[in-house]
Amino acid sequence: MSEIHPHDSLFRAAFSRPEIARGHLELLLPQQLCALLDLESLTVHFGASFVDEELRQSHADILYEVRTHSAKRTLIYVLHEHQSSFDARMALRLLRYILAIWDRWLVDHPSETPESPCLPLIVPMVLHHGPTGWRTAPELASMLDADAETLEVTRDFIPHFRFLLDDLSSLPIEALASRTLPALGRLVEMAFWSSRSHHRLVEAQPLMRQVARATDRDENTRELLKQLYAYLIHAARADDEGADIVYDILVDIAGPDGREDVMTLAEHLIKKGKAEGKAEGKAEGKAEGKVEGKAEGKAEGKAEGKVEGEAKGLRDAIVTLLAAHGIALSEVGDARLQACTDVAQLRHWLERAIDATGEADVFSS
Fold first, then answer.
1. What is the C-alpha separation between 328 and 246, in angstroms, rounded?
2. b/e map of 143-180 (b: 16 or more CB within 10 Å)?
3. What does the alpha-carbon distance between residue 99 and residue 97 come to, in Å, rounded to a whole number?
4. ∠ CA 354-124-34 to the nearest 5 degrees?
5. Residue-wise pLDDT tens digits, 195-213
6. Is 202 exposed, middle or buried (0-12, 13-18, 19+ CB in 10 A)?
7. Distance of CA 45 to CAs 12, 35, 86, 126, 289, Å?
8. CA dist., res. 98 & res. 166, Å (int)
9. Per-residue confidence at 281, pLDDT binned at 50, 70, 90?
10. Are 321 and 354 spatial neighbours (Cβ–Cβ below 8 Å)?
């Protein structure tokens, strides 16, 4: 079973909290639909995930159930997309997930289905914060190879469904900070927005500090904040400047009440090698794997030579990082990696391994 990544953990922990979930739905659902729903009835289907296995490193999902004021069941499916490239096939994936939800519903509610199956309404929603923003219409029809007239004529025969899109990356940080959400929900969304570069984190720092300092710190909230810190550490990229300042920024955001949590978490991640490649930057010698490469290059010295020592460390770092993503190299892939002594090529592969969802993501040109 693949490891639960910090983005998945933070998303589920935050959006499973009823006050954050209700606030997010009230913000995004059409007003006419919101008026029909009793959001106070909202419950979470814990443990239910419909994301394809190969995408679980870059996608997380959550399923809500609410009642209408006429006591009808409605499901709201939220997919959180956390990856470095835009997925133009998202609508098709959503359709497949919706069908999977209905299939499971029929299994879980057999008494309702023998002669007249009754399926709940499902409203799909995507939470996106990729670096390039969303680049197409949020509907399945955008994928169909047909002109507008043909699409309209065939509407009764082919699904054209739209999904609700919350594209955080397209919004200024001030807009996220002022959203009508509970303070903790705003802080989590600002963390998602900030995760793409240390420049964004620097820009968000004053507003995140302001919101964090105003957040009541009960034990559950403190645990969620620790997940937020872990997420931002994990998401940090390897340029030297960004790696150097990420902890200082988090300590500033956390304030006196959270400083110890940030430092304890940093030490824990370093000891367990959870920086995943370059998330620790200089603070951990550009992650445990890469610093091992440099250290081994010096230690082996005359035996292997500095270049081969660094190459070996980079190869080890790639294997370790992929293992953290739940990816095991094939025999062919492992042979290709072990045969490579080109440090520049290995560094390129290490960069690609940070967001890899499969072996092909590392070795593709």
1. 30
2. eeeeeeeeeeeeeeeeebeebbbbbbeebebeebbeee
3. 5
4. 130
5. 888 889 999 999 999 999 8
6. middle
7. 11, 23, 28, 17, 38
8. 18
9. very low
10. yes
- Give the integer Cα–Cα distance in Å for 23 and 188: 13
CA distance 194 to 232: 8
The letter for the amino acid at 36 is L
Give the Cα separation of 291 and 306 in Å (integer).
13
Alpha helices in 273-327 (DSSP H): 287-300, 306-324
Amino acid, single-letter form, for residue 347? R
Q: Please tell me which residue, 246 or 320, carries the higher pLDDT value.
A: 246
Q: What is the mean pLDDT of the chain?
A: 82
What is the C-alpha separation between 313 and 297, in angstroms, rounded? 8
**What average pLDDT does range 8-15 have in this prediction?**
89
Edge-first strand order for the sheet with 37-44 is 37-44, 59-68, 73-81, 121-128, 164-167
Percent of the chain with pLDDT over 90: 38
Rounded distance between C-alpha atoms, residue 95 and residue 74, angstroms: 17
Quote the tokens at residue 205: 């720092």
User: 265-290 burial, b for 16+ CB within 10 Å, e for fewer?
Assistant: bbeebbeebbbbbbbbbebbbbbbbb
Closest CA to 255 of 201, 210, 218: 210
Residues whose CB falls within 8 Å of the CB of residue 54, separated by 6 or more in sequence, listed in order: 357, 358
